[in-house]
């Protein structure tokens, strides 16, 4: 505790403003546990950049932790591009302090001689990715904490291609940041280097979204859509995209239209959760809508609810959405005679293997990377000039259409979802029937996710110990089926438990462990890079001979998942 106290007392020096010093002193005097939580570690880049609770301290998002990250990035940019005028783009979402944090970040960049294109108001994260390339920037920043609770904020770093930073750049930037003292931050802005941007970039982004996300589908006017922005940034872009694409029967959930960092109508602004979309699905039932779409606060992920075979609204999971989108995109490329063996789609190690099967049925390669769209963007960058990227996604409700945006993009993916639904409806089918047909053509895959939250210093230790236990005592049988492969992405090994042979995995190291059985069941364990939780991903599958038998097969797969959860003592 004495070391933590010394660390905290550094925040009582003249480097920090009066308000910060007052709060630190109050914590020292009255709340040692809270003080420890705020200083036991430093904010660091994870799979989604830097994300955490707002407040004073090294383990919080505040003026100084953001300033230090930006000063380190400024130093790195100035070292990397020493002979040019460097330019960065900055966007921010609807969260508390996002706008003021964005200005602080802009001030630090400009104080270091870097030109800044700062969005005039909140914008979707994918628009920032687009803007980096469109404006010819060398890097980009977005202030957002995605779907986290209201007390969170965050900072994501993008490179010149519009993708998030990856190794070795992320490590080099972190080293630069860690070499700094808070007193090294230059906060005094050069306002002449800060340009406010807005409508021009908006128009170009929407035009590109419509171009990439639509396919001359008939029946758009007949598709009844309910849309909710969940109090987030998508309200600035998706209604315009609908209009330009020709979707006219759009009904917005008015109670959730206005951006609000408190997210007052939902417990969590996470489109993965049916409760977050309840207002939208209720409205859909009231007006007999065909499809519901809701986006998270920074508009990079989307949840889609459609009518099942009984006519009830059903929220698709992220794996189902990416399978529908990938199948549709490849089919459209095939119809346009654009497939020549040089195309690929992107996925991640914890996403469904069904995507790989779908792509293979068309003769298209699936590249699989670590969790996070920065790895899909890296695939695209490395394939430039050799292969074409069709689309890619991951299980956590994100999808990327084409390469004009190098991150998950709920604006373009929303249009794509509606194209699939409109085409299916015009042919007397439905988006849900299209999904079931994919299962008939391949296998019925069912996925499930459990997240165990373990907060604070003790929680971090518990999560670390869980991973140690899973590695030292590997599961050898799951629901009566032998485990044949254990993938350890931290050790970069693929171990065949049946033959005792070990292969090397050629993917960057990550703290992920995956078990795979002889019958194709897959379980992955992964500590979150941005939240105090460990995630367990389950995937099971079985043949489906006809659409009318889908309900029975799904029930069998659900029961199998529940047996595995009990078997692994995760209840």
UniProtKB/TrEMBL annotation:
GO terms for biological process: carbohydrate metabolic process; purine ribonucleoside salvage. The keyword Nucleotide-binding does not apply. One of its GO terms (molecular function) is magnesium ion binding. InterPro entries: A-D-PHexomutase_a/b/a-I (IPR005844), A-D-PHexomutase_a/b/a-I/II/III (IPR016055), A-D-PHexomutase_a/b/a-II (IPR005845), A-D-PHexomutase_a/b/a-III (IPR005846), A-D-PHexomutase_C_sf (IPR036900), A-D-PHexomutase_CS (IPR016066), Alpha-D-phosphohexomutase_SF (IPR005841). This is Phosphoglucomutase. Residues 43-182, 206-305, 317-438 form the Alpha-D-phosphohexomutase alpha/beta/alpha domain. It comes from the Bacteria. Belongs to the phosphohexose mutase family. Keywords: Isomerase, Magnesium, Metal-binding, Phosphoprotein. Its cofactor is Mg(2+). It holds the Pfam family PGM_PMM_I.
């Amino acid at each position: 505790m004495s070391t933590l106290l010394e660390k905290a007392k550094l925040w009582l020096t003249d480097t920090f403003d009066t308000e910060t010093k007052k709060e630190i002193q109050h914590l020292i005097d009255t709340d040692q546990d809270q003080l420890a939580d705020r200083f036991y570690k430093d904010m660091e880049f994870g799979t989604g950049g830097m994300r955490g609770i707002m407040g004073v301290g090294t383990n919080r998002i505040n003026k100084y932790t953001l300033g230090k990250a930006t000063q380190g990035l400024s130093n790195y940019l100035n070292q990397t591009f020493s002979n040019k005028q460097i330019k960065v783009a900055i966007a921010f979402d609807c969260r508390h302090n996002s706008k003021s944090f964005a200005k602080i970040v802009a001030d630090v960049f400009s104080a270091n001689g870097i030109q800044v294109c700062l969005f005039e108001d909140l914008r979707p994260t994918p628009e920032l990715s687009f803007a980096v390339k469109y404006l010819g920037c060398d890097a980009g920043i977005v202030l957002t904490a995605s779907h986290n609770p209201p007390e969170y904020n965050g900072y994501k770093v993008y490179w010149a291609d519009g993708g998030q930073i990856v190794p070795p750049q992320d490590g080099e930037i972190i080293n630069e940041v860690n070499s700094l003292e808070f007193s090294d931050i230059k906060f005094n802005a050069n306002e002449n280097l800060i340009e406010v941007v807005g409508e021009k970039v908006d128009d170009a982004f929407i035009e590109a979204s419509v171009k990439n996300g639509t396919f001359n589908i008939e029946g758009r006017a007949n598709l009844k859509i309910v849309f909710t922005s969940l109090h987030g940034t998508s309200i600035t872009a998706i209604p315009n995209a609908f209009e330009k694409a020709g979707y006219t029967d759009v009904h917005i959930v008015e109670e959730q239209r206005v951006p609000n960092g408190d997210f007052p109508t939902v417990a969590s602004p996470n489109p993965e959760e049916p409760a977050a979309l309840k207002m939208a699905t209720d409205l859909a039932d009231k007006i007999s809508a065909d499809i519901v779409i809701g986006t998270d606060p920074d508009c990079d992920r989307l949840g889609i609810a459609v009518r099942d075979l009984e006519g009830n609204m059903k929220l698709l999971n992220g794996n189902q959405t990416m399978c529908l989108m990938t199948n549709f995109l490849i089919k459209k490329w095939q119809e346009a005679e654009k497939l020549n063996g040089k195309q690929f789609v992107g996925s991640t190690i914890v996403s469904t293997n069904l995507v790989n099967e779908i792509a293979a049925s068309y003769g298209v390669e699936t590249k699989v990377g670590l969790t996070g769209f920065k790895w899909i963007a890296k695939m695209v960058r490395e394939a430039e000039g050799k292969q074409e990227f069709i689309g890619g996604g991951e299980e956590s409700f994100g999808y990327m259409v084409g390469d004009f945006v190098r991150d998950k993009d709920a604006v373009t993916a929303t249009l794509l979802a509606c194209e699939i639904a409109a085409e299916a409806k015009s042919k007397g089918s439905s988006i849900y029937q299209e999904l079931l047909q994919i299962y008939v053509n391949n296998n019925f895959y069912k996925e499930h996710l459990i997240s165990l939250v373990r907060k604070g210093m003790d929680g971090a230790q518990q999560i670390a110990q869980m991973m140690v236990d899973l590695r030292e005592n590997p599961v050898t049988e799951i629901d009566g089926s032998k485990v044949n492969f254990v993938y350890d992405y931290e050790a970069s090994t693929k171990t065949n438990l049946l033959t005792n042979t070990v292969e090397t995995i050629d993917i960057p190291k990550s703290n992920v462990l995956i078990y795979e059985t002889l019958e194709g069941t897959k379980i992955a364990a992964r500590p979150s890079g941005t939240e105090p939780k460990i995630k367990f991903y389950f995937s099971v599958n079985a043949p489906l001979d006809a659409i009318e038998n889908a309900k029975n097969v799904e029930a069998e797969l659900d029961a199998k998942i529940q047996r595995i959860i009990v078997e692994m003592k995760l209840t």
